[in-house]
């Protein structure tokens, strides 16, 4: 349970260290996340903040959600998400407060959640890494089949969750312990080492691995500057 950012996966690129080592990075565009509601134990039974990000046409918002935005005075965005917290920092998180890429620090470890790419119907060999059956010795058409799915009369059924052929991908995935390599607060970009789930353009949620390692807004206007890890330079290509 920690504060985080909602952003959009842009794609992948690379940066170079001063030693010339290529570092693959995923680029996340995280424009300002606007707090639309603050939940408290006295009213809701727990601590959390509800946020939205991006822009959305008023004609695409239903009346209940439109009324919620109008009540808080926050500009409507692409959906609503909630971050549950252990405790609420005093005077740091209020309705209308904007959270941006400065929430994180260079070198920090983060977890990224998103919906993985859908790969359609796949068999058990591709989907679950099953071993193939014999290519000969009487095996004619079952080379890539999963084989037995259960017992006989007891229990007389196939257990739920049995690994079989089916839709591959298109599930929620969290990749943990990824390093923040660069932060561009002017363009609202996070460069995160390695691959993250989802196709380009998909929404992702970035959270710190250690919940307390966030730079809470101070209420002052954030300073716009590029923060770069020592010894790392951007790819000139």
What does this entry look like structurally?
The chain is mainly beta. It folds into 2 domains: 10-30 and 101-130 and 165-237, Beta Barrel (Elongation Factor Tu (Ef-tu), domain 3), CATH 2.40.30.10; 32-99, Double Stranded RNA Binding Domain (2-Layer Sandwich), CATH 3.30.160. 6% of the residues lie in helices and 35% in strands. The chain is built from 2 helices and 14 strands. A 6-stranded antiparallel beta barrel has the order 1-2-11-10-7-12. It has a 4-stranded antiparallel sheet with strand order 5-4-3-6, with helices on one face. Strands 8-9 form a two-stranded antiparallel ribbon. A hairpin with a 4-residue loop joins strand 10 and strand 11 (189-193). The protein is globular and about 70 Å long.
**Structural class designation:** mainly beta
Question: What's the alpha carbon Rg, rounded to whole Å?
Answer: 23 Å
What is the CATH level 1 assignment of the largest domain?
Mainly Beta
> Which architecture of the largest domain per CATH?
Beta Barrel
Tell me how many strands there are: 14
* Percent strand: 35-45%
**Number of structural domains:** 2
Low-confidence region ranges:
220-231
The helix tally amounts to: 2
Spatial strand sequence of the major β-sheet: 1-2-11-10-7-12
Describe the biggest sheet? 6 strands, antiparallel, barrel
Alpha-carbon distance between the two ends? 39 Å
Can you tell me the CATH superfamily of the largest domain? Answer: Translation factors
Q: Strand-and-helix sequence, N→C? A: EEEEHEEEEHEEEEEE
CATH topology of the largest domain: Elongation Factor Tu (Ef-tu), domain 3
Share of residues in helices: under 10%
Question: Mean pLDDT across all residues, rounded?
Answer: 87
In one word, what is the shape?
Answer: globular
């Amino acid at each position: 349970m920690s504060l985080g950012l909602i952003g959009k996966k842009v794609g992948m690129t690379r940066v170079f260290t001063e030693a010339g080592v290529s570092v693959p990075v995923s680029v996340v565009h995280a424009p300002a996340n606007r707090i639309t509601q603050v939940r408290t134990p006295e009213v809701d039974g727990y601590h959390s903040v509800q946020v939205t990000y991006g822009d959305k046409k008023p004609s695409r918002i239903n009346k209940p959600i439109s009324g919620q935005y109008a009540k808080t005075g926050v500009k409507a965005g692409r959906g609503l998400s909630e971050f549950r917290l252990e405790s609420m920092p005093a005077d740091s998180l209020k309705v209308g407060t904007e959270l941006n890429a400065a929430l994180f620090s260079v070198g920090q470890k983060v977890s990224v959640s998103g919906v993985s790419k859908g790969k359609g119907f796949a068999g058990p060999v591709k989907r679950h890494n099953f071993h193939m059956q014999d290519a000969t010795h009487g095996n004619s058409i079952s080379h890539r089949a999963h084989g037995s799915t259960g017992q006989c009369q007891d229990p007389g059924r196939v257990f739920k969750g049995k690994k079989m052929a089916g839709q591959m991908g298109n599930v929620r995935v969290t990749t943990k312990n990824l390093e923040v390599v660069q932060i561009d607060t002017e363009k609202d970009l996070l460069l995160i080492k390695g691959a993250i789930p989802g196709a380009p353009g998909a929404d992702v949620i970035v959270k710190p691995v250690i919940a307390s390692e966030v730079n809470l807004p101070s209420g002052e206007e954030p300073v716009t500057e590029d923060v770069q890890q020592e010894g790392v330079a951007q790819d000139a290509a």
